[in-house]
Amino acid sequence: MLAQTLTTLVAIATCAAGAALNPAAFAASDVIRKDFVILGGGASGTYAAIALKDKGKSFVVVEKGGRLGGHARTYYDPKTGKGVDFGLQIYLNDSVVTNFFDRLNTPYTAVSPTQFGSPFIHADFAKKVLMPNYSRGSLGQDYLDDLAKFNPGANDLTYLKTPVDPALTLTWPEYIEQTGLSNASAYAAFNRPAIPGRLREDLALYVFNDLNDVMIREGQRYGAIVNANRDNSQLYRNAQAELGSSVLYNSQIIDGIRANNNVRLVVNTPTGRKLIVAKQVIIAMPRILSNMQTLGLDSKEKALISQITGGQYYGGVVNNTGLMQTAAYPNRGVDTAWNVPDVPSVVTISPSPVDGFHYYWYTSLQATTRTVIESAVRDAISTLQTLTGAAKTTPNFVDYQDFTPLQLRVSADNINSGFYQKFNAMQGYKGTWYVSAFNVPGSSQLFKNTMDLLPQIIAAAGN
What we know:
It comes from Dissoconium aciculare CBS 342.82. The chain has helices spanning about 1-20, 45-55, 95-105, 140-150, 170-180, 185-190, 205-210, 215-220, 235-245, 290, 300-305, 370-390, 410-415, 420-425, 445-460; strands at about 30-35, 35-40, 60, 75, 85, 90, 110, 125, 130, 225, 245-250, 250-260, 260-270, 270-280, 280-285, 310-320, 330, 345-350, 355-365, 395-400, 405-410, 430-435.
């Protein structure tokens, strides 16, 4: 009797879900029929949308925020109109990137040698001491040789070999000790940008992926470009203008079913609920469970996606700091292993091209409020004012962004159990394709991977 009751309840729930996803339950004007639906309007989603538009395909983008661009975040000084980029900083100078900039009529230029700060003033914000002898290190031939040994999987986790080399699932300090990596290379790796959480617990695999061949070239001055107006959001504003009503802003998926060439998603939009009927869905948002659970995941998908976590990372813009305009102020640990600061903490206070403005990054181990973060930044600025003899001004916070979840990871055990091979094999499963940051770390690689995958996605839709 109990089994029969449970079966009946499941059947009723299934019928109710099916009814909610039936076009007949919506006004005709609230049913959006497209070949493709793109979830997320960051780097990958925007690139995919423009590429599909250029190929004459029908699509709709669902973006939970009010703008395109993801981590490309810019504050505009109301007095001068100039921008302060406090998210995405640079791009690789290759044809995939420059063609995309050209396609969207966006100017670019080579990165300035002093863009990220001159001088670097290292300090322990917690202990309130300067560290004038700190060296950021530089990647030596030993690092490059090891990276080559682990490629192509280190450059792009799509190609990670199985079984995974045991060295890659060591923490970075364990890897340094086991391999005898030079201090210069070790410190350079600890100084890679925008890494959330406890750096000493990062696995070697993720260090090599973060500092892969592409990212190393981006770090070389001749290999990187930036928006010529120092406004990395311009690329995405231009995309917004071109995509027009093909993007649903401030919208989120609340229900869905997926099968090959039969994707149905219910979307909450500012103008009410819509039903999207599409052939294929392109996931261009962070593939964590909280983002994906309304898509009707099956047990295989849920088992893999639930293994993925992202770090807590925040940024903002502040003026009236009294600090040197051109200087960068990284936070260090004067007596911690590898001089890595404890978490939670301010990561850095960095210069901008707009007089009087700096931007900051902050990381923690759990969700943190803007009030707490700005208080920590205020304390750090006060400390730096004292240490450097700067004027004791009161900082003014003018912009803020939560970049969480940043740098998606899985555990060493899951890596060794073949996580990446299993997940990468799900491309196209149930009409679902993944192009967001996961296997590669930066926009430049995201553009290329999306470009390479699109022919398969289009073919799957029968186009």
